[in-house]
Amino acid sequence: MIIIDRALQARAEANNPVRVAMIGAGFMGRGIANQIVNSVPGMELVAIANRNLAGAQRAYSEAGVTDVQTVKTTSGLEEAIARGKYVVTEDAMLLCQAAGIDAVIEVTGTIEYAAGLVLEAIAHRKHIILMNAELDGTIGAILKVYADRAGVILTACDGDQPGVEMNLYRFVKSIGLTPLLCGNIKGLQDPYRNPTTQEAFAKQWGQKPHMVTSFADGSKISFEQAIVANATGMKVAQRGMLGYEYKGHVDEMTSMYDIDRLKELGGIVDYVVGTKPGPGVFVFATHDDPKQQHYLNLYKLGEGPLYSFYTPYHLCHFEVPLSVARVVLFQDPVLTPLGAPQVEVVATAKTNLQAGATLDGIGYYMTYGQCENADVVQKENLLPMGLAEGCRLKRDLPKDSVLTYDDVELPEGRLCDRLRAEQNAYFAEKKTATV
């Protein structure tokens, strides 16, 4: 990763910046815009799309860019980019279609809306950097198939915990150890939180209550750990993950896991609550060579058999431009599915649910997400959390019950449902072909 700064410097000196566009201009999008404009020589944020045009304009304004052009056509966008203008638009499809853009950062946090945009960007052979674990954890595997066919990269990003975990995972593997646990450190986990309980915190930090709720109720971390599992081949030890609460340091937790079970599963993804250093990530790994075990002990990593590695922070939008550079300059995805999903996120009743009700979205009042191994999800016909919004309940369901497809009527005509069905069929066929 250290080579990225010099590669970007070379692009800056050659007056040939990496040209990136961004879809979504909320709290995180504004941070990304500010970072690229003011701190990343060799990269230009040439366009921002947002369904509310004022949001896109605000993102540029907060970054100190005042000369911004509004466009409504692909040709208008291409012309503005050629003239070196910063561009805003309400039509995100333009960013996916226009020439002169190397990569698109997707920061909407949506699933149905984002799915169409990602397919369009792929069709026009643009790399896509997702800051959208919800999309990735629902239909990322089939979107990766589309990207591979088009010869472009679809990847999650540095900064968010999954990308930081994957960087650490790759480092640990590169020095000869075998990772058996990829973990995320949380300060709070309460599946019954909702936008009302989280309103004050959201207001304090200028965020949306439902987004804050998705972190507090465990939905977000479930999506994040699911995409780490899908990029590493790991599983979960149980539905919802183990989720130990521990007030000490993560280094002290290596004895809490059954190493034989970890090996049997091929490694697991998990989270811990209240553990130091929060809000970081960690990898527990083994080494089979007694000589190297001796060195690891000398270097203060202990006697094993599990060795603890951690990153004590994640810096979200600060690191996203590094992901763009890795993809465009080095064809190096940060985190992308290996193939068929290994872990899914399933919809679970946050409260008693009544027949006839229409389910609200991620981080709201009716459901929360839990990780489950993909083979169980298929066998039990469980409803993915990413598809729950807008579904109509056929029957009453008690609090904490996991929803199935049989419990709901899906909205008609959704692209995300078609892609999900295609994903299931594609990987089922591949599995049959290899048996």
Task: Give descriptors for this structure.
Rossmann fold; 40% helix; 435 residues; alpha/beta; 2 domains
Structure, explained:
This protein has helices spanning 3-13, 27-39, 53-62, 74-82, 93-97, 112-123, 133-150, 161-174, 199-205, 209-216, 219-232, 259-265, 290-298, 320-330, 374-380, 415-434; strands at 18-23, 43-49, 68-70, 86-89, 103-106, 127-130, 154-156, 178-186, 244-245, 268-273, 281-286, 307-311, 343-349, 367-373, 392-393, 408-409. It has 435 residues and is an alpha/beta fold. The protein folds into 2 domains: 3-160 and 318-330, 3-Layer(aba) Sandwich (Rossmann fold); 161-315 and 337-435, no CATH class. The strands form 4 sheets. The chain has a 7-stranded parallel beta sheet, with helices on both faces. Strands 9-10-8-11-12 form a 5-stranded mixed beta sheet. It is globular, with a radius of gyration of 22 Å. It starts with a helix and ends with a helix.
Summarize the topology.
Blueprint: H1 3-13, E1 18-23, H2 27-39, E2 43-49, H3 53-62, E3 68-70, H4 74-82, E4 86-89, H5 93-97, E5 103-106, H6 112-123, E6 127-130, H7 133-150, E7 154-156, H8 161-174, E8 178-186, H9 199-205, H10 209-216, H11 219-232, E9 244-245, H12 259-265, E10 268-273, E11 281-286, H13 290-298, E12 307-311, H14 320-330, E13 343-349, E14 367-373, H15 374-380, E15 392-393, E16 408-409, H16 415-434
Parallel strand pairs: 1-2, 1-5, 2-4, 3-4, 5-6, 6-7, 8-10, 9-10
Antiparallel strand pairs: 8-11, 11-12, 13-14, 15-16
